[in-house]
Every structure is written in structure tokens, then in C-alpha cells.
Amino acid sequence: MSNNALSNCADCPVHNLGNLKKLGVNMSNFDFAIALAGNPNTGKSTVFNYLTGLKQHTGNWPGKTVTRAEGGFEFNGKRFKLVDLPGTYSLLSTSTDEEIARDFILFGQPDVTVIVVDATRIERNLNLVIQILEITDRAIVCLNLMDEAKRNGIQIDDRILSKELGIPVIPTAARQGEGMTELTKMIFDVASGNFICKPHRIKSSSKELNAAIDVLIKEISAEFPNLPNTRWVALRLLEGDQSIIDAIRSGELGNIKGINTIEQSQLVIS
Amino acid sequence: MNNHNVNREAILAAANNLRWEVGENLHDTLMESIYENATAIARKAVIYPDKKPAFSFDRTLDKILTSKYFGFPLMLLILGAVFWVTIEGANIPSGLIASLLVDTLHPLLKNFTNSFMPWWLSGVLIDGAYLAMAWVVSVMLPPMAIFFPVYTLLEDFGYLPRVAFNMDPLYKKVGAHGKQALTMAMGFGCNAAGIVATRVIDSPREKLIAIITNNFSLCNGRWPTQILISTIFIGGIAPAYLTGLVSAAAVVFVAILGITFSLVVSWILSKTILRGEASAFSLELPPYRPPRILQTLYTSLIDRTIFVLWRAVIFAVPAGMVIWLAANITIDGVSIANHFINWANPFALIFGLNGVILLAYIIAIPANEIVIPTVLMLTVANLGLSSVGAGSGVMFELDSVADTASILHAGGWTLLTGINLMLFSLLHNPCSTTIYTIYKETKSVKWTLISTLLPIAMGFSVTFFVTQIWRLVVGS
After folding, report:
1. Is A71 exposed, middle or buried (0-12, 13-18, 19+ CB in 10 A)?
2. Which of residues 232-251 of A touch B (CB under 8 A)?
3. What is the total count of domains within chain B?
4. pTM of the model
5. Could you tell me if B199 and B214 are in contact, meaning their C-beta atoms sit under 8 angstroms apart?
6. Other C-beta atoms within 10 Å of B36: how many?
7. Is there a domain that residue B101 lies in?
8. Which residues of chain A make contact with B23, given a CB cutoff of 8 A?
9. Is pLDDT above 90 for B278?
10. Which of B25, B86, B94, B327 has CA 20 to 30 A from A129's CA?
11. Domain range holding B258?
């Protein structure tokens, strides 16, 4: 009887949290690397602590995490390494914390990037989501602080949001642990390729820009055939981003496969 | 290989040419498209409430906490309350721990080791290393165990960004970055952490200013020094029922003085070697969140209190050995420590300090936490106070602030010495961990040296002026 119930539970996606094993700092032999990105003070570290079982201090102020934190968890028999990135409003400026976040998503090649979004400030948070979707295909929006959004009377249609962005959107309240089961399950699905994302791409009306991007994409993919996000690299080149220029000149842009820690990705850049 | 180089340069050249075709305002065009896309998506998926609620707790609280008139007084009040709670709460447990570790355990350990060790080995281990450690624990643990959780609760509640908001106009006026208020607040916990936090500042110029001035935030290694000395010398001249309040006020004053110095030095730097305008930035005031008390207690006790205490203990053990050796190895019948103290005394007196304090600050370069234990050990050794210790360089049975006071008074300390020690504790070189962190963040020997030497120079200047004026006015 109890055995039967257990196996039923194991098949039911809602109860899969039973499969979540918090591994703390033990990250050996991981199958997937997951990045946690998002605006400052949206609860990335709370999500991180929840999934890894670590007790990294979280503070109620933007900029609390300026260095990276890493931890691990196991779900459905797969081992995940989770990297908590510094909170950033964009990926286009030059401050160290934004570079750490950007370089890890770009060069660290996480299997999934979980973008933690403040449900009470969706519009501004989407600016970062859109920029991240330029860099990576495999992303999930963790629509956090849903409790605060509800308290403020904000109604969010997460299915429309998901359709527009082309990636899964999971409403959560990480402080209370709500929605974390669904998030874990979705991380698993996207990482293992069960869920294919079709991410939103910036629509620009400038013909010159689009033409220039096309030319550069062709040249870059000829020289670096394994690079998955040539469009972003092309955009950065057009903007004259020095770290990308250096990475191309030294050829290290081509060596990015299999880099999974920030230290390594910083080595590539610097 | 060569072929690759040619290809890569070709990509860069193509990018250079295309950059002209796309036009200069690519960055703006791109940002505009991003914003437009974001707005369009949000409009489809989100419905905001029609009218704002009549009463918003957050907005009302923000109006008070960041108000033109109440903002700063409330800040001072909150800061003062935190110290008062710390001072009042720490005294009794400090005495309890000291009587356990020093009064009870020390003689037991001493007798035990004396039974099979040569006297000097038992001296180095028990009278040096163990006593220094016991001292650090009893002086440091109680204030930290109160201060950190209270500070963390304030942080979790969301008060720190409001402090930054209040301070921002001041920092802007002196040509520094408003976020320096946040890194300064981190520095109140630990300067090394504060310096790592300067990564949130984009402009290299403003980041350097924030790094150089971070040391003016009293760190947790220095709070106990401030609290103890203020209780003995400043609280001591007030009526007994006001001691706690007056001591807390004095510590708040020194903390404010530190903030003032950070503003003044930022202003001087931004007018001289780091010239430039303050850059604009946006600071988000997060919603107030009820702190999760139990988790906060856990993280602040484990992550901060125990972590910092452990660090202090690690540095105290070798320092205790060094002190014992310095007090017991003699040249011409006088110990090395006394040679230095006697040699440094005339110089130190110009600044209203003494040779013991200078030697303590040299020994305590690895960690500010051990300044007070070192001062006391050296004072006892220097005076040869046999009634309170068993031989040179032995820390004595100290179970209350009053005993510490009597030691320091016996060592010739006056109110002026106490005031100057508090000032010098605010203005001296950062600890070795912080210096190393500064080097890692700036990658520059020059800026590391400036950040290290500037506070010492200021410390000697300020104590010099205070002493000269004091002697003119008070006459002693």
C-alpha cells in the first residue's frame, strides 16, 4: 500500500520535490551547470539557498552579492551545479559585477540560466531578461515575489509572459518555498532537453543594424564555428566592447566550450 | 596559426567599418529597442491595480525615514540604540566568560602543564597563546553576538538602502559615488567586505575613492575597542546611571567622525589626485520585508559572529606567544617589549598615546580584534603588576570592566589617552586582510600604499592636534 503510494508520487510532477536532494557545497561530478541571474534584490540568493540547502546570507538591499556563490543539488538522479551571480540591471555596462554576470552566461555556457524576476516590477526586470535571451537559448524566468505582487493587487498572466518570451515562466515566492517544486522540475526539463526554448530576440527596426549584424555573424561563425551566440558577439563588436575584441584577437573566444566556473571564464577574458 | 590571426583581425576590421555605417548611437538604439520590447511584453501580461491604495505602509515609512528633517536624526537614534543595546547587554556575559576562561580554566591549565613542561613552554602556550585567545573570546564574543544580529535584522528589514538614500546627496557633493554609502555600511561589518562591495561602483575613479575611504568605517574588529575604552574613560566620568548612554553616545560620535572623515577625504581626493564629477546612478529602495528572526539569528551568529571570532582567535594565538616572548626575553635585564616601549614612549607622548599602544598596533596588524588584549598584556608586563598576573607577559584575572580600568589607570592612562586611543583606532592602517583585499581589487601597489598610509598619517595628525589643544586647555 505504502509502496504503491510512493511510486505514484514519484511519477507525479507535483511531488517531485521529494526527489530534490540539497547537496550544499558538494558539486563534484555535476551533470548540468545552472546560472542564477536577475536584477538586484529580487531574491536570487533566497532561491539559491532553497535549492542548495546552503545558508548564504541574504540581505534586503541591492548589491548584496558581488561575488559568485556556488552550490549543488540533485534532482531526478541528475546532479546540478548552481551559480549565484551578482544582481545586475543590464549586461551592457562595464562595472565589475555586471561583467562577472555577463561573462559567466556568455563564456561559462551554463546549461540553463534561471532569471529571477521581481513580479512587482516586471517591466524593468524584462530589460535584463531580453538581454540575457540575446546571449543564451536555454533560460527560465523565475517570477519571484509573487506574494508581494498579490498584496499590491498586480495581476500577471504568466502563460502570456511565457509565450511572449518563448521560455518557461514559473511563478514563485521563494521565501515561503512556493513554486520551488515547479522551478526545480523545469530546470531539469530544460537542462535535459525535454523542453525546447524559442527565446524572444530583440526586434530592431534599423535596417543598417540588421545588415551589419548579418555580415559579422557570417565572419564570426567562419572563424569560431562552435560559438552558439554569434549574434550577441556581433552586437558587442559593433558597440566596441573591449573584452570581446580582446577575446577574439587572442582566439580565446573559440575555447569556451566546457568552461563551467567563473574563475575559468575570467581567465578566458582577462 | 597565422591564418587565424589574419581572420580574426579581419573580423575586427569589418566590425570597425560597420560601426560607422550603423551610426554612433547604436548603444542608444539598442537600449531603446530593449525598452520598447520590454514595455510591449509587460503590457500584454501584467494588469496593475486601477487606483493606488489609500494607505501604503512602505511609502509612509519611507517618507519618515528618508525625510529631510527626520532622516538624519532617526539614523543617529537607530545607530545609538544599537550601540546602547550592545554596551548594556555585553557587560555581564563578558564577565562570566572571562571568569570561566581566565579565572577558572587558566590556573587549572597552568598547574597541569607545569607538571610536565619546562616553565618557558608552559609560559608560551598557556600564559601567551591560551590567555590571548581567552581574552579575545571574552572581549569579542558578547558584543558581537548582540551587535551582528541587531545589525543584520536592520539590514534584512531594508533599512540600509534608506541610509544610502539619505547619504547620497552628501557623497554627490564631495564628488564621490552615492553607492559609497552602501560600501561604507558594509565596512561597518568588515572593511575587507566593504572593499569587495565597491565592485558595485562602475567608475574606476569613484571606486578608488570608495576603497581608500572605506577604512574610516569602524569595522567589527574595532567596535569592541571603542566600546570598552568609551565605557572606561568616557562613561566613567558620567554618573553611574548614565554610563551606558554616555558611552554609546561617544561611540556614535566616533562613528560619525569616521563618516565625516570619509566625506572630507573623498572631497579632497576628488579635487586632487582623483579629479572628476560624480556619476549618476539609480538606487532602488526595496520594499520593507519583515525579517525572518530565527534565520537571521542563525546566519548572523554562524556566518558572522563565529567566523569573525575564529579569525580573531587564529591571530590571537601567535600574537599571544609573541607578546609572552617579548615580555620574557631580556636584553641587559630589560625585556624586549620594555625596550621598545621605553624607546617609543617619548615619541608616543607627543600624540597623547604611549609606547604600549604603538607596540600593540604593530602586533595587531593582522587583526584589529586583538588590540585591547595586547594593550592589556603589555601594560601588565611593562608594569610588572604581580598582584594581577603570575609573571611577565601573563594576562591577569580580569572579570569586569572595572579591573581593566584599574590596570589602565595604573599604566598611567588618562582620559586623554582613552580619547586618543579611540581616535587612533578609527584612524590607522587597515588590517592585513584588508590591505591584501585592496591590492586584489586595485591591482596597484601605489593605491594600496595610499590606502594604507593615509589613515595612519591622519591618525597621527588628529591625535597630535587633540593632544596639543588638550594640554593648552586642560594643562596636563
Report:
1. buried
2. 234-235, 237-240, 245, 248-249, 251
3. 1
4. 0.70
5. no
6. 15
7. yes
8. 208
9. no
10. B25
11. 72-473
